[in-house]
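Appendix B. One record, verbatim.
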Amino acid sequence: MKFDGCKRVVTTEAVWNVIADAHKDGLKTFVSPSAPFGDPWGGRESGMETAYGFDGATCPTMAARSTWEVKGDGAAKREILKYEYWLYFPIKDDDE
């Protein structure tokens, strides 16, 4: 996900989990789009991405995405393909 005025940097699951745990009471969901049964154009890879941040922030703090392939009719057969993790940082317009 792209947010205006924010830079996204790849991080590890370990770093992401430490930050999430340390700030679990303050982090709120910014946005959480998902496509659990494939995309609207017939693609079989599905996923969910959630960005978290603090109230009043213009930029989320972190995000995670899991993707999977839908098997069969898609109702209950999911095989996780990968997890991805990011941190976000606010940037000035001239830094973009």
